[in-house]
Amino acid sequence: MTDEHEHVVFGKLIEESNDRRLHSFIVKASLNSKLFINAGFCKHGANSIQRLIKKVKKTSEAFMVTRILSTGFYELMTHHIARHVIQQCLNLIGNQPNEILYELAIYYFQELATHEVGCISLNECINSISGSQRTTLLDHIANVAAYLSNDPYGNYVVQHVLALRNASVTDKILHCLEGQFIHLAWIKGGSHIVEMHRIF
C-alpha cells in the first residue's frame, strides 16, 4: 500500500477482489488497524486507502472501514496528506457509515478548528454532515465563536459557518461576538468576520 511501485499492485488487487475477498481483507485490516491507519500518512498509502473506500462505498464494508479509521480520526484529520482519506469517506460514503466520523468531528471540533490543517478538514466535514449531527456541530461552533474568531485558524471556521447563511446559527454567532467587532477588526482573520457581519 505504501511502496512507490507496489501500491499499484494493491490497487489492482482491490479492483479485482470479489465481495468475499474484500471482506476478508478489511477484517485483516481491522486486526491491524494501527498499521492500516499509518499507511494513510504517506502519499501512496493514502491513495491506496482512498481506492479501497471507493470500492466499498456502497457496501456494508463501508461501516467497517469508517470504524477502523475512527480509531485514528484526530491524527488523520490534522495531517496534510492523511486528511484526504477522511475526505474520501465524507465525499463517497453515505451518512450512516460516516456517523461515527461525524460524532468524532463533534467531539474534537474545537481542537480541529484551531489547528492549521484541522480547520480545513473540519470545514469539509461541515459541508457533508447532515441532520441532528449537523445542528449539534454548528451549535457547538456558534457557542465558542468569540474564542474561534480570535484564533488564527479558528476564524476560518467561523467564516465558513457564516457563509452557510443559516439564520439561527448566524444569530448565535453574532450574539456571541457582540461588543468584540472593533477588536476583531484589528486582527488578521477577525477583520474578515467583521466584513461578513456587515453583510448580514
Describe this structure in words.
The chain has 200 residues and is mainly alpha-helical. It folds into two domains: 107 residues, no CATH class; 92 residues. 75% of the residues lie in helices and 0% in strands. The chain is built from 16 helices and no strands. Helix 8 packs parallel to helix 11 and helix 10 packs parallel to helix 13. The longest helix is centred in the N-terminal third of the chain and has 14 residues. The termini are far apart. The model has no long low-confidence stretch (mean pLDDT 90). It holds the Pfam family PUF. One of its GO terms (biological process) is regulation of translation. This is Pumilio homolog 12-like. Keywords: Repeat, RNA-binding, Translation regulation.
Rg result: 19 Å
Q: What is the 3D form?
A: elongated
Helix content: over 70%
**Structural category:** mainly alpha
Number of domains: 2
Distinct helical segment count: 16
Unreliable runs: none
Note the topology.
Elements: H1 7-16, H2 19-31, H3 33-38, H4 43-56, H5 61-70, H6 73-77, H7 83-92, H8 95-107, H9 109-113, H10 118-128, H11 131-143, H12 145-149, H13 154-163, H14 167-176, H15 181-185, H16 190-199
Helix pairs in contact: 1-4, 2-5, 4-7, 5-8, 7-10, 8-11, 10-13, 11-14, 13-16
Domain PUM-HD: 1-200
GO molecular function: mRNA binding
Protein name: Pumilio homolog 12-like
What's this, in brief?
75% of the residues lie in helices and 0% in strands.
Tag the structure with descriptive keywords.
single chain, 200 residues, mainly alpha, 2 domains, 0% strand, PUM-HD, RNA-binding, ARM-type_fold, repeat
